[in-house]
TrEMBL record, chain A:
Stretches assigned to the Lactate utilization protein B C-terminal domain: 424-496
Domain spans labelled 4Fe-4S ferredoxin-type: 336-408
Organism annotation: Streptomyces angustmyceticus
MF terms (GO), sorted A to Z: 4 iron, 4 sulfur cluster binding; metal ion binding
Region annotated Disordered, chain positions: 1-24
PANTHER family per record: LACTATE UTILIZATION PROTEIN B
Protein name: Iron-sulfur cluster-binding protein
LUD domain span: 96-306
Automatic annotation (TrEMBL), chain B:
InterPro entries, alphabetized: FTHF_cligase-like_sf, LUD_dom, NagB/RpiA_transferase-like
Source organism per UniProt: Streptomyces angustmyceticus
The protein, known as: LUD domain-containing protein
Gene3D superfamilies: NagB/RpiA/CoA transferase-like
LUD domain residues: 115-208
Leader sequence residues: none
Length: 523, 212
């Protein structure tokens, strides 16, 4: 099939292509209030967070390796998954129109939302049309991203999260800290206290056994499931070929919300579409094994429009842009849209493991969040946009790339975003410092003199031997790094000393005793 | 006239693609498909996976189906069980409790009063221990029926068990309401400790018919 590479020539094309807008500044949850290094410094001081996260990520890493190692064709599945996603992005206009057509044919209604504000308005209006003032929620990153619960509240509608972890986060008035297990920063004692405080009528003798805590949540939500008239979900996949939507979960809260109410409203990012139903054969293998390290998640629901006599008889699909087309327009950054939200990259990331999710300020934390968030929301809302620090929240070790089931090259995307940020932000203190260093290094005498002076730094560094804070203009560097004190002596001065000369002579003699030991044959 | 959100989003998608290179992609499908395994191996693999998910498995030829179902229900002390409209009535002949045939008019809270539910299944996947329920089939019923009661006794014909996910997905009817079940309801949200049973059935009993 041939595809136009230039501007399309059909009736909807109105002039030269324009760069699509990012998610509007100041809306939703794609931006924190503080830059990453600053927020991370506080989180690093939270010992319990580090203990919880360390244990959780270690466990899940092990499980994931077992589950993926079990499949001899794991790498081929990754190749297929990556290619299907790239192909999907290439054909997004036709696939979205096909999805819309199929959902409509099966009795659903499709809505389009340019951004989160518009999506929130659509959902609030649909809920009001039902006459209900409460909705049940299935855990959904898209609705977290747009701040749907807060908007509904401002419209007098109460949203109840039904996923256990989301419920814990909601009851605690907290923010999620992980894509898959949002309450991983809480331990069982805290969860017990939250339940005792927030769940009406909970047994005051509730202990901290996870099974008992889960049972308390079951009892609390049971009545809601039986009586609720409206539910809101996200979608893991939307199949263009058939109009089928799918939600992948474990607890059954998803099944409850997707089948018991009269009205179901699904908010789906436009990148979640898949071309064919058969493509699920790839993603139903990649997603559970990557995310929870299970062969399959306990429950997956699939539905197409409405089915008479079974499930909601009123179904609405809200297709959300909110910066996704801006990411799509970026040749490099668009790869981040392939993400299937499995969270494998979080669990292998040495930076995430220590800082946790809150430091990223976005509902998408960790390595993928560090590329997806700036792609969706931009990095230059203000002079000191916290999102501009996200591409630097990485050691570029590459573990995230290895773990990604659809082979998103996160390290390269981070480097590209750093480049874009540097290009746009002009001269920085760091750039000036590098320029000064280059000038000094070009002149040997000056360099030797600078090294001698640097030796003085040891006195200032004190007994720890490191600087945790350097004075301006070097503070930009030291904000996120400890700087070792310079050595007592530079290499050049050591080599010129009696000790250096003696060491070099000894090394030369050693080499003479074993001539060409390491040299290849015949050289 | 101002553009609708639909027109705007679709225009943005087209503009985005026009602004960035996007070389055509060939999807490599070299992963395993079209597998088949002998009955005994499929049964052994499927059973192993189900047990790993803390489901309980009962295996026997089809003339034992009614007896196995009755044993399982009795073991759980089930008095009232629900069945979908099209379930083979012969399957419950050995059960001496009350059998309620489902209908779309029965509200969900009434299902909550059932001790359990017995259904058939459409397709299964041995490698992952997954059972696929087809909500459009009369012997599996609407989705609420297998969700609200706390005990689900699910009958699986060995001939409907496929080796892997691609083989199983190929046998589905896409536009039917489908539910994939791998063990009972579970959560790992509290300190990553797996707990069976949150909102879905806390007990899954699987009866595998070896000659069907």
């Amino acid at each position: 099939m041939s595809r136009p590479t230039g501007p399309p020539t059909n009736g909807t094309f109105l002039g030269m292509p324009a760069v699509p807008p990012r998610s509007p500044y100041g809306t939703g949850h794609l931006r924190g209030t503080r830059k990453f290094p600053e927020a991370a410094r506080d989180e690093l001081g939270n010992e319990q967070l580090r203990r919880n996260l360390g244990r959780a990520t270690r466990t899940i890493r092990g499980k994931r390796l077992d589950a993926t190692g079990e499949l001899p064709d794991w790498e081929r599945l990754r190749d297929a998954g990556a290619a299907i996603k790239s192909d999907t992005m290439n054909r997004l206009p036709e696939l979205l129109e096909q999805l819309e057509r199929k959902v409509t044919e099966h009795g659903g209604t499709v809505h389009w939302a340019r951004d989160g504000v518009e999506a929130n308005e659509i959902v609030a209006r649909l809920v009001k049309d039902t006459g209900s003032d409460e909705v049940l929620k299935v855990k959904s990153m898209a609705t977290q991203e747009i701040g749907l619960n807060e908007h509904l509240e401002s419209e007098g509608i109460t949203a109840y999260e039904t996923d256990l972890a989301e419920l814990i986060v909601q009851l605690a008035g907290d923010q999620p800290s992980h894509i898959l297990v949002p309450a991983i920063h809480r331990n069982r004692d805290e969860i017990r206290e939250i339940f005792l405080r927030e769940i009406p009528g909970v047994d005051p003798g509730l202990d901290t056994v996870p099974a008992h805590l889960a049972a308390a949540a079951r009892a609390y939500l049971r009545e809601k499931f039986m009586t609720a008239r409206v539910a809101v979900s996200g979608a893991n996949f939307g199949i263009a070929e058939t109009g089928t939507l799918s939600v992948v979960e474990s607890e059954g809260n998803g099944r409850m919300c997707l089948t018991l109410p009269e009205t179901l409203i699904t908010v789906m990012g436009i990148e979640k579409v898949l071309p064919r139903f058969a493509d699920l054969e790839v993603f139903l293998q990649l997603l559970p094994r990557s995310s929870t390290g299970e062969r399959m998640n306990p429950y997956t629901s699939m539905w197409t429009g409405v089915t008479p006599g079974d499930g909601p008889q009123d179904f609405h699909l809200v297709l959300l842009d909110n910066g996704r087309t801006a990411a799509l327009a970026d040749r490099v950054g668009r790869e981040a849209l392939n993400c299937i939200r499995c969270s494998a990259c979080l669990n292998v990331c040495p930076v995430y493991e220590r800082t946790g999710g809150h430091a990223y300020g976005s509902v998408y934390p960790g390595p993928i969040g560090a590329v997806l968030t700036p792609q969706l929301a931009g990095m230059h809302g203000t002079d000191h946009d916290p999102n501009s620090s996200l591409p630097y929240a990485s050691s570029l070790c590459g573990a995230c790339f290895d773990a990604c089931p659809v082979k998103i090259d996160i390290p390269s995307l981070l480097v590209e975003l750093r480049h874009q940020h540097t290009e746009e932000s002009g001269t920085t203190a760091e750039a000036l410092a590098m320029k000064a260093a280059a000038a000094v290094m070009k002149r040997p005498k000056l360099f030797t003199a600078a090294q001698r002076t640097a030796g003085l730094g040891r006195v200032l560094a004190g007994r720890s031997g490191t600087f945790s804070r350097l004075p301006a203009p070097f503070s930009g560097w030291s904000d996120s790094r400890d700087t070792p004190a310079p050595p007592a002596q530079s290499f050049r001065s050591w080599l010129a000393s009696a000790e250096g000369a003696a060491t070099m002579r000894a090394a030369a003699a050693e080499g003479a005793r074993h001539p060409d030991d390491d040299a290849p044959e015949g050289s | 006239m101002t553009a609708t959100a639909r027109e705007t989003v679709l225009r943005r998608v087209r503009d985005a693609l026009a602004l960035s290179d996007h070389p055509e992609v060939e999807v490599p499908r070299a992963y395993r498909t079209g597998r088949s395994l002998p009955d005994e191996e499929r049964l052994a693999l499927f059973t192993d996976r189900l047990v790993d998910y803390r489901a309980r498995v009962h295996t026997g030829p089809s003339d034992r189906t009614a007896a196995l179902i009755a044993e399982v229900l009795q073991e759980h002390g089930a008095q009232r069980v629900g069945v979908p409209t099209g379930l083979d009535p012969a399957w419950l002949t050995a059960f001496d409790g009350e059998v309620l045939t489902d209908s779309p008019d029965i509200p969900a809270p009434a299902l909550d009063a059932l001790d359990g539910v017995v259904t058939s299944s459409a397709v299964s996947c041995a490698e992952t221990g997954t059972i696929f329920l087809d909500g459009g089939a009369a012997d599996q019923g609407r989705r609420a029926l297998t969700l609200v009661p706390d005990l689900h006794v699910c009958v699986v014909d060995l001939s409907s068990v496929e080796a892997g996910v691609p083989e199983a997905v190929a046998r589905l009817r896409p536009t039917r309401p489908l539910t994939l079940i791998s063990g009972p309801s579970a959560t790992s949200d509290i300190e990553l400790e797996r707990v069976e049973g949150v909102h879905g059935p806390r007990t899954l009993e699987v009866v595998i018919r070896t000659d069907a």
